[in-house]
Amino acid sequence: MILSPLSYWLLKKFRAPRIVHARTPEDFGLKAETVRIKAIDGGSLFGWWIPGTDQSLAEKRTTVIVLHGWGANASLMLDIAPWIERLGFNGLFIDARSHGLSSEADFMSMPRFAEDLESARAWAIARKDVNPLEVIAIGHSVGAGAALLSASRTQWAGVVSLSAFAHPKDMMHRYMDEHKIPRRWIQPWIINQVQAIIGARFDEIAPVNTVKKIQCPIMLAHGKEDKDVPDSEAKLVFQEAPTGTRSIFLDETGHDLRPAILILGPAVISFLKKIVCEDKHCNVVQPEQKSPAG
Known about the structure:
- The chain has helices at residues 5-14, 81-87, 110-125, 142-151, 168-178, 186-198, 202-205, 207-210, 231-240, 261-277, and strands at 33-38, 44-50, 61-67, 90-94, 130-140, 158-162, 218-223, 246-250.
- By secondary structure, the chain is an alpha/beta fold.
- It has one domain (21-166, 207-276): Alpha/Beta hydrolase fold, catalytic domain (Rossmann fold, 3-Layer(aba) Sandwich), CATH 3.40.50.
- An 8-stranded mixed beta sheet has the order 1-2-4-3-5-6-7-8, sandwiched between helices.
- Strand 7, helix 9 and strand 8 (246-250) form a beta-alpha-beta unit.
- The protein starts with a helix and ends in a 17-residue tail after the last helix.
């Protein structure tokens, strides 16, 4: 892709910071294998593969793929790992490109997050210990929008959206307002440039629109005190979601849902269990909530 100097400036301006992993599955008492997954651009995605442990399940187990948000990485999503373990499911935690230990990309976007999620799904269903009809996506923030986008065009067994925004344009307006970029002329120009760079119209990828196309079970979770993405946006997405979509709005919780994990965890476990365990036996272990060592 040939980009103008202004486009390069925009990419640099909106580039996500790359932060290191602060913890590993072992900090949660979980055994994991580090894996490399081929990305669509020829690069690679770093991941932690945490194999399921419930021997009562079939050899090909349900698998949950977890994707972080913008400027984050897989280690920040590991609080979800004990939920997956309780169900005996396989877990796959990945770094999107340009994040964590994954390869660099010229730029990242929500559609590229969705590509990485789909690369991880393709890698998982090629394994002998994965049921290809029972692969579930969990995403946070931009990762949640990517999970909803992917579920609108790819066969997932279910999707859990954590702190998703309703429309990328609104997110960009808030960001540019914070940086005192004038709404008249300049903000519309930047939005048009970004759409051209990522190769997608915001209306096409907005969660408030993609959620309408999803045919698998959906769960939406959002903090009522989210300052990055107001809970009103989650309510807009929920209004457009198919009948039967679950939602949970968490009191005294912001964009980072981890402070509400003791409430959110059981709700997500119940949702995951309902997707795949109604017609078969699943041994759900209910230990006290695990936390990182130290």
